[in-house]
Amino acid sequence: MTTDPVTSSAAEPREPAPRRQLVGQGLLIAGLLGTALVGISPAPYVIERPGPVYDTLGDTTVDGDEVPVIEVEGAESFPTDGRLDLLTVYLDGSRENPLDWFEVLGAWLDPRRALLPVEAVFPEGRTEQESDEKSARDMTASQRAAIAATLTQLDVPFTSTVVVDEVSPGDPADGVLEADDELLTIDGRPVTTDAELRAAIADAGVGAQLELGIRRGGAESTVTVMTAARSAADETPIIGVVPRIEYDFPIDVTINLPDVGGPSAGMMFALGIYDTLTPGPLTGGEHVAGTGTVDAEGRVGAIGGIRQKMMGAADAGAEWFLAPVANCREVVGHVPAGLEVFAVSELSDAIDVVTAIASGGSTGGFARCT
Fold first, then answer.
1. Among 247, 282, 316, where does a domain finish?
2. Closest by Cα among 159, 138, 135 to 148
3. 114 in a domain, yes or no?
4. Between these two residues, 96 and 321, which has the higher pLDDT value?
5. Do 332 and 286 sit in the same domain of this protein?
6. End-to-end CA distance of the chain
7. Residue 74 — left, alpha, or beta (φ > 0 → left; ψ -120 to 50 → alpha)?
8. Is residue 137 part of a domain?
């Protein structure tokens, strides 16, 4: 008598343990390699971090020599005291030298550093060298504007001319205006400041024909430009030029900071020049820091990297900080311990705040970022 074989319901035999370990190790290595490859791949960000701090009332080193940051000739100058610090930021990364994702992650975890999209700092089509050159031009322009703002504050007359610095490709002025053209009039009205130029274009509106009186190579002529909207989503009228203002001052002011770029030190330059040209130390020996652009009329404008600049000010020992009103949203909740921040919109506001600090009087009535 025969019987059917018994069919077992038990599971099939497992792979030998060494083989399973090899497979697991292979997957782990592959995952690590994948992570490493992603980590070292280019990231579309740059990093801002606190940079050097410069006292506009102090000295700096140029070509191995100690020289004042601000030197004035052609006018009486007066002794200063205390500190009026301008702040800078270091910038890591660019289109040509991109950061990797490991660096981006490290910055994201570090409250002293900030991430910015690379296109916000290095626009498409602009090389790192071109960006550095523009930063240097912005610094020169900010220094000239600081002198103008100070002289305006002191009621000292000077003259200015609006010059085309750049023409934006594809905009209305392209092919009509050229770099270094002097803009003399718009529709017969004299134009001598950036504010007057912008106001004239704004008053004309989109689609208006403007008659520009210009000087090119010493010869005067008239050209016509049609205004256009800035973009489909922005109806601000433009002609497509980046202006610069050239001044004829009655005094000579030299600012010795050759390795610093950008426009954000304008207000602090103006305060330093004002202190140098007026009797008595403006700060009263106090340590004040600040940042902000400034124009010839003394208006203070927004800047980038204000959180890193406040950290730099605190690191340098400043107790007081002047911030543009336009940056207040970024200031709130990020003020370092021991730093008191004031919000200013005009050079005269900054002067009033520093004067109150110097006197030891109450500063409760001055604007803050809230």
1. 247
2. 159
3. no
4. 321
5. yes
6. 99
7. left
8. yes
Task: Examine the domain organization and report whether 230 and 166 are in the same domain.
Answer: yes
Do 243 and 256 lie in one domain? The reply is no
CA 341/CA 290 separation, integer angstroms: 9
Return the HEC string of 238-255: ECCEEEEEEEECCCEEEE
User: How many domains does the structure of the chain reveal?
Assistant: 2
Integer Cα distance of 118 and 103 in angstroms: 14
**Residue at a domain's end among 222, 247, 272:** 247
Residue 88: helix, strand or coil by DSSP? strand
What CATH number does the domain containing 89 carry? 3.30.230
**What is the rounded distance in angstroms from the CA atom of residue 124 to the CA atom of residue 318?**
38
Say if residues 212 and 221 touch (Cβ distance below 8 Å).
no
- The C-alpha atoms of residue 120 and residue 66 are separated, in whole angstroms, by 36
Q: What pLDDT is recorded for position 30? A: 58
Judge whether residue 174 has pLDDT over 60. Answer: yes
**Close Cβ partners of 202 (under 8 Å, ≥ 6 residues apart):** 236, 237
Q: For residue 200, what are the domain limits?
A: 159-247
For the cut 90, the answer to whether the pLDDT of residue 229 exceeds it is yes
Instruction: Give kind and range of the element (H or E) at residue 259.
Output: none
What pTM value is reported for the model? Answer: 0.83
* Cβ neighbours around 285 below 10 Å, total: 10
Residue 315 within a domain: yes
